[in-house]
């Protein structure tokens, strides 16, 4: 029983639950058994409340027996990146600073998923405070890529990607500030969707860079990503940046929208630094769309390609230095035992609680916001950000979506880039501008390197047109079988 | 590689209320110097007359009614406090 359930899509599992072929308890037990079998090697999870998951599964089965099942997610386990609050469960941000923190309330996405009957299943490893592209910045040790345990799963949502790729849980939530859902999805061979900025409430998401952070979905298939997105999207008065957008039935939209589409290919996203095998796989995907009757247009995003990373690392670090000021050792989080006065509590607690990448970004962010540098760095970056967004707006006037690689490189070796922060930052070159512009982006599997490492295709859509974006992605997925390949663990 | 002459790690560490070791200061000075050197390229962009963009959401001036609503219970609000006594958070003495 257990082995048959591993790697089934959430959509398939929902159908079996609805037909009474499996129970939610059996499904949770299968996930727990799989986690037991593989997570000692993959290390996707920081923790897992097994008793709580089983109790929630029993409650789901009871609802279903009483004819009160709440919909397709009722009884489906969902893993949470360890940055999203689930009441009564740890929330560590993979940081020593929050090693003992227990969430006093549910995030809005958590409340919505619980209301849909989904089962919170474990806390997933990440780069500390979501700062990184490899999950090596976790204070609790790195996660391994299920396709090659000597390589990184990407990041910062590396645990969320690896857990799905390893068959430990069918759906996970991640967060994406500069590529942190799409890049690990690409490196682990799964689907990762970053919604439009403002579509999903961030209430209960520990903040990194508030003008960029967005919660999104990670799954085996585009249909599953749509299913999970439909459950978490929508306006929330508790997140004042959330938008009063209509939330369509994304799964129905997938069935209804068939193309052909006008698709843009940004020429700068295929330049120097792109791994040739990745470039070839993405070009094959573009050819697929052309053969389907889509109009393929070469487009130019020169400012996004040249300046997005510089803009991002000024804006994101500035916002991080401000957001992370709350970790002062007073009300919650780590408090230094060495400190004897209040200033010492601040200085020492932060020194002991934060890891090197977080400290580096706090210092950089403090510098770019400091008197005398604000205009030259932060304000200028915000203006270039406007120009980058305008560039996307102009291009998307004539295109339904854009196609590009997700990451310039496949999964790299653990430790390969950890000594050079700038080299690590450059792995986000194709994803970062999407956050700056606030657009939706999705990574779907589109092949493997000769060495057997997954390759991701990134699709970028118009603001709040997740339905259209998912439909374009689905058209590719339904004609290929990359998403049905799984690592041998 | 490059180091920024105006990158004063002691000054920044003080502003950020973050104690850094000498080794961290040396490492960050070099790494942040590289990063600041990289972002210099933004000076090439003509931004005259361009409005800065604070975020990407088409949402401005959000209001909500000023009404009393339930908040976190005291026990829940204090459960993560590093030190507490009688429903209060204990901190080192701040006044003489």
CATH superfamily of chain A: Amidase signature (AS) domain
Number of strands of chain B: 2
In CATH, what is the class of the domain at 1-46 in chain B? Mainly Alpha
What helical percentage do the residues of chain A reach?
A: 40-55%
How would you sum up the major sheet of chain A? 11 strands, mixed
Helix content of chain B: 25-40%
Strand content of chain A: 5-15%
Q: What is the largest interface, and how many residues per chain?
A: A-B, 74 and 51 residues
CATH topology of the domain at 1-46 in chain B: Histone, subunit A
Q: List the quaternary state of the chains.
A: heterodimer
* Portion in strands of chain B: under 5%
Strand order of the largest sheet of chain A: 1-3-2-4-6-5-10-11-9-7-8
Distance between the termini of chain A: 18 Å
Would you give an account of this structure?
The complex is a heterodimer of chains A (489) and B (96). Chain A has 17 helices and eleven strands. Chain A has helices spanning 2-5, 10-18, 24-42, 50-65, 108-115, 158-165, 182-188, 222-232, 250-256, 276-291, 302-323, 342-353, 356-369, 375-397, 421-425, 432-437, 466-477, and strands spanning 45-47, 77-81, 119-124, 171-176, 191-194, 214-219, 262-266, 295-299, 401-405, 441-448, 454-461. An eleven-stranded mixed beta sheet of chain A has the order 1-3-2-4-6-5-10-11-9-7-8. The radius of gyration of chain A is 21 Å and the shape is globular. Chain B is mostly helical and 96 residues long. In chain B, a hairpin with a 2-residue loop joins β1 (84-85) and β2. A two-stranded antiparallel ribbon of chain B has the order 1-2. Chain B has a domain at 1-46: Orthogonal Bundle (Histone, subunit A). Classes of the chains: A alpha/beta (489), B mainly alpha (96).
């Amino acid at each position: 029983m257990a082995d048959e359930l591993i790697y089934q899509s959430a959509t398939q599992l929902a159908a079996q639950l609805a037909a009474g072929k499996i129970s939610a308890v059996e499904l949770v037990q299968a996930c727990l058994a799989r986690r037991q079998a593989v997570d000692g090697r993959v290390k996707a999870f920081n923790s897992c409340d097994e008793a709580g998951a089983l109790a929630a599964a029993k409650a789901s089965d009871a609802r279903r027996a009483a004819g009160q099942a709440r919909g397709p997610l009722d009884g489906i386990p969902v893993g949470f990146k360890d940055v999203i609050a689930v009441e009564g469960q740890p929330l560590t941000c993979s940081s020593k600073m929050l090693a003992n923190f227990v969430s006093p309330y549910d995030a809005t996405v958590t409340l919505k998923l619980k209301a849909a009957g989904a089962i919170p299943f474990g806390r997933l490893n990440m780069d500390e405070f979501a700062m990184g592209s490899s999950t090596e910045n976790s204070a609790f040790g790195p996660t391994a890529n299920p396709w090659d345990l000597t390589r990184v799963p990407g990041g910062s949502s590396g645990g969320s990607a690896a857990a799905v790729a390893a068959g430990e849980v069918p759906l996970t939530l991640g967060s994406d500030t500069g590529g942190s859902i799409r890049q690990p999805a690409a490196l682990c061979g799964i689907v990762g969707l970053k919604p439009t900025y403002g579509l999903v409430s961030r209430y209960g998401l520990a903040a990194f860079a508030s003008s960029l952070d967005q919660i999104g979905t990670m799954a085996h298939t585009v249909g599953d990503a749509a299913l999970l997105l439909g459950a978490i999207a929508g306006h929330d008065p508790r997140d004042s940046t959330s938008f009063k957008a209509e939330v369509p039935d994304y799964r129905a939209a997938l069935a209804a929208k068939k193309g052909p589409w006008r698709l843009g290919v940004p020429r700068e996203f295929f330049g120097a630094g792109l791994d040739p095998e990745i470039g070839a796989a993405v070009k094959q995907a573009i050819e697929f769309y052309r053969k389907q009757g889509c109009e393929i247009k070469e487009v130019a995003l020169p400012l996004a390609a040249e300046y997005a990373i510089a803009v991002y690392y000024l804006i994101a670090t500035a916002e991080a230095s401000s957001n992370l000021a709350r970790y002062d050792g007073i009300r919650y989080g780590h408090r230094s035992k060495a400190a004897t006065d209040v200033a010492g509590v601040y200085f020492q607690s932060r020194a002991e609680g934060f890891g090197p990448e977080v400290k580096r970004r706090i210092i950089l962010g403090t510098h770019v916001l400091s008197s005398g540098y604000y205009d030259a760095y932060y304000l200028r970056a915000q203006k270039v950000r406007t120009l980058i967004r305008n560039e996307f707006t102009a291009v998307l006037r004539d295109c339904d979506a854009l196609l590009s690689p997700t990451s310039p490189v496949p999964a790299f070796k653990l430790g390969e880039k950890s000594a050079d922060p700038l080299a690590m930052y450059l792995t986000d070159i194709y994803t970062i501008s999407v956050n700056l512009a606030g657009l939706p982006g999705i990574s779907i599997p589109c092949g493997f390197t000769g060495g057997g490492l997954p390759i991701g295709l990134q699709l970028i859509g118009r603001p709040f047109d997740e339905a259209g974006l998912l439909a374009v992605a689905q058209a590719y997925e339904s004609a290929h079988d990359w998403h049905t390949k799984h690592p041998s663990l | 590689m490059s180091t920024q002459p105006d990158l004063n790690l002691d000054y920044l560490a003080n502003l950020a209320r973050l104690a850094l070791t000498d080794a961290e200061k040396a490492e960050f000075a070099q790494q942040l110097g590289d990063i600041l050197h990289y972002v210099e390229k933004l000076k090439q962009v003509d931004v005259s007359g361009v409005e800065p963009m604070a975020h990407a959401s088409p949402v401005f001036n959000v209001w909500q009614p000023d009404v009393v609503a339930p908040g976190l219970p005291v026990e829940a609000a204090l459960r993560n406090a590093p030190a507490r006594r009688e429903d209060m958070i204990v901190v080192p003495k701040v006044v003489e």
